[in-house]
Amino acid sequence: MILDTNFVIDMFKGVKDAVEKAEQIDKTSEPIFITAITIFELWQGKKDHKKNEKLSQFIEAFGLLSLDAESAKLGGDIQADLISRGMRVDSEDCMIAGIALKNNQTVVTNDEHFSRMKGLRTQSY
């Protein structure tokens, strides 16, 4: 299971649905991952150094999945498909989807555009 950036942000903000989903996930034995893309997205938004330490500790609690050549190709295919259907999605989200597909993982997110990505499994909150 991969935690999408918006889910992590909502957890940190204390958004009720995200916190409840996190508690539900915590009760499973399924491995939980974040991606290097999520770390990039989270880190670019942090200006408070005290929060950086908290974020670093959070990141270290999960497995890390990185963008490799196969994941990048899958993400590129997803973005090309969406563009051909007249839809625009951030490249970062297509990369996360490519990583998820390559690693046979579900993405936890509330971004609806992930549901338009062919073959990708998602869980909303």
List the helices and strands and how they pair.
Elements: E1 2-3, H1 5-13, H2 16-26, E2 33-35, H3 36-44, H4 49-60, E3 63-65, H5 69-84, H6 91-102, E4 106-108, E5 121-123
Topology order in helix (H) and strand (E) letters? EHHEHHEHHEE
How many separate domains make up the residues?
A: 1
Classify the fold: give the CATH topology.
Rossmann fold
Mean pLDDT: 93
Please count the beta strands (DSSP E, at least 2 residues each): 5
Strands of the largest sheet, in order across it? 1-4-5
> Rounded to an integer, what's the Rg over CA atoms?
14 Å
Please report the first level of CATH classification, the CATH class: Alpha Beta
Helix fraction by DSSP (H/I, runs of at least 4): 55-70%
Gap between N and C termini: 14 Å
Total of DSSP H or I helical runs spanning 4+ residues: 6
CATH architecture: 3-Layer(aba) Sandwich
CATH superfamily: 5'-nuclease
Task: Give the overall silhouette.
Answer: globular
Spans of at least 5 consecutive residues with low confidence: none
The percent range for strand residues is: 5-15%
Major β-sheet profile:
3 strands, parallel
Q: Pairing-aware structural class of the strands and helices? A: mainly alpha
